[in-house]
Amino acid sequence: MPFQAGEQLSYDIAWSSYLTAATATVTVREKRPSFDSTAYYIVAEGRPTSFVAALYQLYYKADTLLDAFTLLPQRGAIFSVEGRRTSLRAITFDHTLREAAYEVQSGTPLTRKSEARISLPPSTQDALSAIYALRALPMKTGTQVQVPVILNGELYRLNVSIGGVESVTCGLGSISAWKITPVIRAEGPNPDERELTVYLSNDARRLPVLMRAKLPIGSFTLTLREAAGTK
User: Fold this and answer.
1) In terms of DSSP H, where are the helices of the chain?
2) Which of 122, 145, 205, 224 shows a CA-CA span of 20 to 30 A to 170?
3) Which of 17-48 are b and which e, b meaning 16 or more Cβ less than 10 Å from the residue's Cβ?
4) Are residues 38 and 30 in contact, defined by beta-carbon separation less than 8 angstroms?
5) Residue 4, SS3?
6) How far apart are CA 25 and CA 47, in angstroms?
7) What was the pLDDT predicted at 217?
8) Quick one: average pLDDT of 192-210?
9) Domains, the chain
10) How many CB atoms lie within 10 A of CB 112?
């Protein structure tokens, strides 16, 4: 595995005209028994800078239990605070039956609002586990992989293309990195496509050193500032 328990990655997040609008940490907190198997417990947290927080309260926490043998998620959740709105969206996967239980809670305290069963294609990921699954892929220029992803109860197709190796500047200095281009396509009658760019370090760690995304609310860039607990 290119990652291990104890790995912590810290990022600066630029948004539109804000050079640093927020910071994020992604931590592999532990490797533990889970759902009759063994899983990595991975947590990502994002907070705005003090200037942005003074304008609007924001906090995001995503976590996933990633099976250590299959690299498929067992359970994933996203907790968010946006102004006065608080919500928790959780999904529990059954890859054998190819279905998942999706639950939404909101309010203070959190109260269950809805529940649903979702049919899954084989090898479906959640948004956080998909990043770690990408890190474990063999890197070869020209390789293309399709990954189903569930986000907020909706199914997306992640069409991943592996490009060449480029030099990328981040908090660790100038890094040789693989350029990965995932195109996110929503399922349904009106499919929507979004293109991302992810750079993974060209070494055994496969660190996500830079990520870019264009969304309706602006362009985001995540730049790795620090890496601790890596191999």
Assistant:
1) 50-55, 127-135
2) 145
3) eeebbbbbbbbbeebeebeeeebbbbbbebbb
4) no
5) coil
6) 9
7) 61
8) 90
9) 8-228 (2.40.360)
10) 11
